[in-house]
Amino acid sequence: MNIEEYRTADYPIDPIYIKRWSPRSFSTKEVEQEKLNSLFEAARWAPSAANWQPWRFIFAKSNEDRKKFLSFLYEGNVEWCKNAPAFVAIASKTTRNEAGDPNIAHTFDTGTAWGYLSLEANRQGLITHGMGGFDRGKAKEVLHIPDEYDIHAIIAIGYHNPQGELSEKNKEREIPSNRHPIEKFVFEGKFVEG
Length: 194
Description:
Layout: H1 16-19, H2 33-44, E1 55-60, H3 63-72, H4 75-81, E2 86-93, H5 106-123, E3 127-131, H6 136-142, E4 149-158, H7 168-172
Antiparallel strand pairs: 1-2, 2-4, 3-4
Helix pairs in contact: 2-5, 3-6
């Protein structure tokens, strides 16, 4: 696939930002643990308010663990991601100390860690696809996530299989999406609704 047919940068940036996208067609080829560890290592170095590093990643590679993840994903996601060889649940600690004081930056920092992880996956020849379509309560229960943590997303990780089996609806969606120009979300001096 020629990414440039779908995406072009308006200003000079490293090509990794353009090449990273979220396919749905996964190969069943196993993801090597060393590569997964490199993804988590990249996330480790994300910026973090007061160095609290609130992110937590729960991964699944075995058939048994993958079935647990599939049990709380919404059916529309299960349809295309059931062949993904690895899943990661992304959660963050909402408190910053034993007293339970809130960490107001936990989602911001954890989102940055996910961004680092996804770019490293691309660099490692892997694809990632983040999902918000899942039962959060059931996921917290199944994965034993404590109350002081929020769960944000489930990520499918693996190798791309452009000839993979997808429904007609998902085949139509299997193209890199473009992005708004920066003028739509960058404002000088004050916010402008538009």
